[in-house]
Design brief:
Blueprint: E1 4-5, H1 7-13, H2 16-29, E2 38-41, E3 50-58, E4 62-70, E5 82-90, E6 96-101, H3 102-121, E7 128-132, H4 137-148, E8 153-157, H5 161-173, E9 178-180, H6 184-189, E10 193-196, E11 215-218, H7 231-236, E12 238-241, H8 244-250, H9 252-260, E13 270-271, H10 272-276, E14 290-293, H11 298-309
Parallel strand pairs: 1-6, 7-8, 7-10, 8-9, 10-11, 11-14, 12-13, 12-14
Antiparallel strand pairs: 2-3, 3-4, 4-5, 5-6
Helix pairs in contact: 1-3, 2-3, 2-11, 3-4, 3-11, 4-5
């Protein structure tokens, strides 16, 4: 029987400093092949859902695939929106090596990738982090950002004040000074870093509220019909993505401004491959607004899964 690594095992194996370093090396090496994920509508009008398949491999070494179900209305059932399983295989024989809790793996690698981007794009003196969203990813993002920047205050905003307080309480238990934010615009304006993880179809982080020098981290909206930012913010920012192919195909935060003619793919400054191998500068000035848009990359999953299994 192949071993199963549950959420506790995943969290124990994937410390943020080590995972951030491993992802930096993986993006710089660019020796993992990962096609753009496939997506299928599998829900109903009452319970919309998507099935995602995300394979990746390093030839002769390791390969794996993550299967993800995303049901945005699960909150009403007291469930997370994302459920996932990862299967890791031997890259020489194709034999299965492990099953891994996909939600824990996704939360860890997503947060670590955001922190990796922040290392290049946020100001080194960033102290105030605003987290937009109260899902399972929100606490992970705050903890990962705090690894690479001297965060002294975390503001948590969500549509539910009770859920925002619950996330803030979890972060305080983890040693981060966190509090719920009653007003989103004020929380965004107060931030050095804004990290947004929602399934919104309407802009939440608006260009008019983001002050010069802010880094905006958008990780939630993952389809062309979703978005977390408005056109004004995208136009005002130096924009980076996790991978060009994935983001320009799936990220509504970018594809919608492109379709509207208010922004162009030619304005994209680079992706994590460019940043990690030094092919592109990150932040170039203290007053610059930077934006990192991720939709998730299978390279990240494979790197994290290999670390879990060892």
């Amino acid at each position: 029987m192949i071993p199963f690594f549950d959420a506790d095992a995943v969290h124990a194996a994937l410390g943020y400093p080590e995972l951030i370093a491993a992802l930096r090396d993986a993006f710089a090496a660019a020796d993992i092949e990962a096609p753009v994920r496939t997506a299928h509508e599998v829900g109903t009008p009452e319970a919309p859902g998507r099935l995602l398949a995300m394979p990746a491999w390093r030839r002769g070494d390791v390969l794996g695939v993550k299967l993800v179900n995303v049901f945005p209305r699960n909150a009403a059932r007291g469930l997370g929106a994302v459920h996932a399983t990862y299967v890791l295989f031997d890259g020489t024989t194709g034999a299965p090596r492990a099953l891994i809790d996909g939600e824990a793996l996704t939360n860890r690698r997503t947060a670590a990738s955001s922190a990796l981007a922040s290392h290049y794009l946020s100001r080194p003196d960033s102290r105030v982090l605003t987290v937009v969203g109260t899902g399972h990813l929100a606490p992970a993002l705050a903890r990962a950002h705090a690894v690479v920047r001297p965060i002294r205050q975390v503001l948590v905003w969500g549509r539910s004040a009770a859920k925002a307080e619950a996330v803030a309480a979890r972060l305080r238990e983890a040693g981060l000074p966190a509090e719920p934010a009653p007003d989103l615009a004020h929380a965004v304006a107060a931030a050095d870093i804004v990290s947004c993880a929602t399934v919104s179809t309407e802009p939440l982080v608006l260009g008019r509220d983001v002050r010069p020098g802010t880094h905006v981290d958008l990780v939630g909206a993952f389809t062309p019909l979703m978005r977390e930012s408005d056109d004004a913010l995208v136009r005002a920012s130096r924009v980076f993505v996790d991978t060009r192919a994935g983001a320009l195909a799936e990220a509504g935060d970018l594809t919608q401004p492109i379709a509207a003619g208010t922004w162009s793919a030619e304005c994209l400054c680079g992706d994590l491959h460019d940043l990690c191998r030094g092919a592109q500068f990150g932040r170039t000035g203290a007053d610059e607004i930077t934006l990192f848009k991720s939709v998730g990359a299978a390279l990240e999953d494979l790197t994290a899964a290999a670390m879990v299994v060892g």
